[in-house]
Amino acid sequence: MTYPSNTIIMTLITCVLFQQMPTDLQHGESPCIPISQVFHTSTGLRAVDPEEAQRLNPYHRIGRLAVGHIVYRVEGGEYQAVSIKSITQTKESTIGRVYDLSLPIKHRTYHAFGYLVDMNTPSQAKEEIVDALRKVPGSKRLGLLSQYHEMWPMFRQFGGHCINQRLNWELFEHVKMGSTFIKPTGVPIDRLARGFSLAPHHPSRLPVSMVDGYLLLDDEVQLRSTYDHRTRRFRWTRELHQQKLFEHGTVEIHSEAVSGTGVIYLSADSNAQTLPPRDQAHPFKAKARSLKKLQAKASDDDDTWDPWDQYQVTIDQSAWPPDTERTDPETPVDGGTIEDGIMTSSYGVKTYMVRFPLIEDLRQQINEKFNQNLESFYEVTDKFEDGLQSFTVAFNRAPLVPFVSDAGPDIKKKFNVGFQSKLGIDVTLPTLFQQMTFTYDVNFETLSGYLYEYDPTKRGYKGDRHLVSGKLVDSSAAEACRSRVSIAYASNLDTAAIASGKLQPAPITQSLLQLQEGSVADLMQFTGYSETQEKYGPAFICRYVGRTQKYSSKFTTQQFNNLWYWWEGNGENSLSQSEEYNDINRLSSREAMKSLYSEKLAAYLTTDPDKWAEDLYGQISKERQMRRYIYNPVPDGNNVINKECNILDALSASADRASDYFEKLMAYALKEGVSTANIEGGDQDQQYQWIYDTMHSLIVAILNGDDSISKDVREALLQDINDFEVQNGLNQQADAQKRAAAILEKSAVFAQELSGWISSVGKGMAVAFGGTAAFKWAGQAFDTISAKYSSLLPGVSKLKGIATACMAGVSLATAAVTIWGLVNNWDSMSDAQRATVIIETTRMVLDAADKSIDAFKSFKSKPATTAADELNIEALNDSLSDLVMGDNEKIGNLAQEIAGDEEYRTAMGIPDGTPPGSEEAAERFNLSGKLLKVFNVILGIGLVVAMSFSLAGEWDSMNDVGKVLGVLNIVVQGLTVLLDIVDLGVEVGLFVVTGTMSVALPILGAVLAVVGIILMLVQFFIGLFVAKQDPPDPIQDFINDVGLNLINTFDNAPEPQLSYSLSQNTVTGDNVAALHIEGVNKSSKEVTLSHTTITLYSGNDDVCLFANRSNTIKLVPESDGNRDQPSYTYVTPSSLSAGQLPTPARLGTTSEYYEYDLQVAGPQNDALTSLKNLVLKPNEKFQSVWTAVVNSRRDDSEKSTSWIEVVEAGLVDKCQMQFMLRRV
């Protein structure tokens, strides 16, 4: 290549150091380049920091520059390919400023240190794009643009004619700036170096490597291939010389980049176009693998771990204080290794995970040496956000470690914890932690994060925080692949072939995925699914009828309120209470799924859809998968639980799997609660009564041979009863009732003291006991007290099995009541209700004992004095957790026992807000505030989805209370005010709540409204009441003849409990206005509301009150100094009220408007940041103040009218009022 005459060579500052081999560069030069500098490489434009480079070059798609890439250096008037051998980034620059130089000529080439670079000149790129478009014939220009998926939304919104006119004007008269880069979703394939094996593939699994968005098959670079980052699809065509055929293939890589699906077709035609019959195609599944192990045979086993890479971890032994920054360790110590890879489930679903080899080794040696079957020692949850992969690891065996290691019960040792002295196992953990969170960099080469020491004295067991960092141990395989790709493209650079399209794969590859086979993994991904972003049709009917000036005077205020109440209220005759409405809702959702996603569902609906549904449910019910949903329920803007339940319902409507899954979610929350220490002492007399009643019932059941208790457990406990009676001279000939009474009378003093040990708080025990629960704590409490009574109460040790089962049953019962939130609180239940619930949970404890009967017999026979004893207790606790998670029927029965007469799903969340009962759960159990909020969210979401799907099918079985509350109240109370959910999203980054989640009615699938009857009614009413008619007036005739008579049959809407007023009813357009909406308690009694919602609109539509568009109005505290400035709103007084303002939903197609739904409730709860009920004493009031620029006045009164709607939500019902404002 000839050295261009118009190039400039520049010297730049020290930010990145390239070090080349002497064979690549003369004199071994090491040029210094900014990290944002864009280089021309054999595989496109690249920079060390592509994000920063992209910001400077919005018209280019810039990849990452790494070791193995080839750059170009000019020497003697020609370009030489130079391979990058290493890159080192310096921390400081020797020069403080860099200048870009842009030449005013058309064909420009820039060099730095002789290397071909791009000079961050957006205007140049823009001119190149404009010049290229100008050269396209006008008749073909729109056709060309329509091939780009990014353009489709614009075509749908504006149409081809409008776009063509605007484009011609911009191309030939005026050029408009813009950006073409669209951030991809999912793990970016063009930043990864990863292997895949394709199976089944004849004659063997085809090894595939993907590096920086380029493809290698059988270790050969495929020049005739392409990658589309929007669809995440690779397409290729290659010649198979031995078979004398051409292989055409397509593979779509799933968002997590650990699996994919594709199709291969063999043809004699190198440019095949026609899709073949299905039996001639070869569908396959792609499984990600380590590049280092790609040639090795992949495992065919399910539930297997396939390791990829290892990261050497460093932990800072010095504590990282709160509210401080730290990027480098002060006292670095070896943190061992973290291993990443994929876990394949029994359903073939692959999940990207991390493992800790040291902890896995410890678990394996414990199980082998002590004949145990302890499962995972830690739980991993993952999250992909903003292009970065994060993991949170909870070390759920941390409470066990002090009892079986040299950390000891006093936990004097937090680092280098060994197990040789207690277990005889030569394993040393770098640290005893409770939770570790870390994030990989975008290239998966380093990780950084933090861990919390295990400290039972702290909330959630989280002690001091420590910095964690890590680095990839070996990256040679990725660098080698990258080098092969770069060399191949540098060696085969044929601009004529590129321009002619000869390197593009055959056209058939664009449609091959139509022949793919179904899998549970694909159902889990279900790409293209999206939730509706609009409101239900009923809201539109009410809005149009009530706000059309020509006819609004024909209705009284009460009639308007009744009409609104029929559509959205909770009255006995309201629409939401009808079985038909709920049937239509579910049927329409199911058909909408089949219609909108017909291509995705076709392979499943035609091949045993019930089996597919069963397998999908099995996969999402696995604890590992549930954790992912629980901690990240809206990962891509879609509610994943709703999504999966919609797919299940579309595949198999015969089973109510949504309700089954909700019970699974309840079980998971309960499992977390029962494995966490009880930290509330409680009323000892009351607790004694619970234990007394439970022990009495249990002893009677055992003596009567109750078959609901397993034979092994029953016989073991019966022997204990007989032995105790003999040692105390009790009458064994009496009936069961009298024998039980005699035993409890004899042990009354002991049981009284035992009842004060439900919690470990204040008992003077070693620190480690503060983290124990279930069998471990109950056993320790019994052993401690029984030692005092050994000489006073003969045979007291024989009561251990019965007493500890009852103590664990009490803890399980209190966890269920408080975490599920089925009643106000545990103490509000009657004695009989509590006794019934405790007996049920105690039976669950005994079922767990039966699953580990040998461990239970050992546990009840003596105190724990050895490591083997501790492991037996751990096995018992595991059995209890497995039982809770494994029996939906027991969970449902337990929930119903707690709820009493009311159907338990209807009861949840009434009347005090979000399920579960977070405040009481926080008081009773050592659960972190974040975890409680996570349970709030997931149980709320699960409840709404389950009720939405199942109420229609179970309507006739609902009792009167359930019917009164209905679907609407389930949603309103089940996700009360959405306050905790919004708060959680802000605080822990769980997700962002939009207008979609604040709707009053459940939204299923992609249904905009109830498709069919209701949607037709919406359209009918809108046309009926809005269209202008010349006399005779059929609308007026309809109102008189039909409308008023119909509305008069509706239930009367309840009157608001507060008196609402608006400070003014006229506002001046294009000026700042401050509006005060006030709610006053003018009654003589205290008023308690769930919340009040104030709804108004901003934007450029006629209906909008304010002019704000994307610059949204912000909610601030009453004390904020900006509160009275434009674009701010606040609620006052803060002592009585507080607000929550979800991100406004953008509505409209031909116009732009935003709906604001400010929800006003009581002040924030300091402990959990949730809002309380709104409680106002007589004459107390709240105000909502809005300050913003008013929307412009239009040319007539109708178009210059805006509305503010106020919906008052009581504890069981709601009502509405509205204010009309004129813009003048």
The mean pLDDT is 76
Q: Please work out how many helical segments DSSP would assign.
A: 36
How many E strands? 44
Name the poorly predicted regions.
Answer: 1-28, 174-183, 532-548, 909-925, 947-1035
For the largest sheet, list the strands in their spatial order.
15-14-13-12-20-19-18-17-16
> Judging from the principal axes of the Cα atoms, what is the shape?
globular
From the alpha carbons, calculate the radius of gyration and give it in angstroms. 34 Å
- Strand residues, percent: 15-25%
Give the helix level as a range of percent. Answer: 25-40%
Report how far apart the termini are: 71 Å
Major sheet description? 9 strands, antiparallel
Overall structural class, as computed from helix and strand content, comes to alpha+beta
Brief overview, please?
This protein is of the alpha+beta class and 1224 residues long. The strands form 9 sheets. A 9-stranded antiparallel beta sheet has the order 15-14-13-12-20-19-18-17-16, with helices on one face.
Structure in words:
It is built from 36 helices and 44 strands. By secondary structure, the chain is α+β, with helices and mostly antiparallel strands.
List keywords for this structure.
disordered N terminus, single chain, 1224 residues, eight-stranded antiparallel β-sheet, nine-stranded antiparallel β-sheet, 36 helices, alpha+beta, 44 strands
Structural topology:
Layout lengths: L6 E4 L5 E4 L12 E2 L4 E4 L2 E4 L2 H7 L6 E2 L5 E6 L2 E6 L2 E4 L19 E4 L2 E4 L3 H14 L2 H8 L6 H21 L20 E7 L6 E6 L2 E4 L2 E2 L3 E4 L4 E8 L4 E9 L5 E9 L14 E8 L14 E13 L15 E13 L5 E6 L1 H14 L8 E7 L2 E7 L6 H4 L10 E5 H4 L1 E7 L1 E8 L5 E9 L7 E11 L3 H16 L3 H6 L19 H6 L11 H10 L2 H4 L4 H12 L10 H18 L1 H8 L3 H12 L2 H9 L8 H12 L5 H18 L9 H20 L7 H18 L7 H11 L1 H7 L19 H16 L10 H21 L10 H21 L1 H9 L5 H20 L1 H12 L4 H4 L10 H7 L4 H22 L9 H15 L4 H10 L24 H14 L7 H15 L10 E4 L3 E2 L4 E9 L6 E3 L1 E9 L14 E2 L12 E5 L5 E3 L4 E3 L5 E9 L12 E3 L4 E9 L11 E9 L4 E10 L1
Parallel strand pairs: 1-10, 5-6, 32-44, 36-37
Antiparallel strand pairs: 2-3, 2-9, 4-5, 4-11, 7-8, 10-11, 12-13, 12-20, 13-14, 14-15, 16-17, 17-18, 18-19, 19-20, 21-22, 21-30, 22-23, 24-25, 25-28, 26-27, 28-29, 29-30, 31-33, 33-42, 34-41, 35-40, 35-43, 37-42, 38-40, 39-40, 43-44
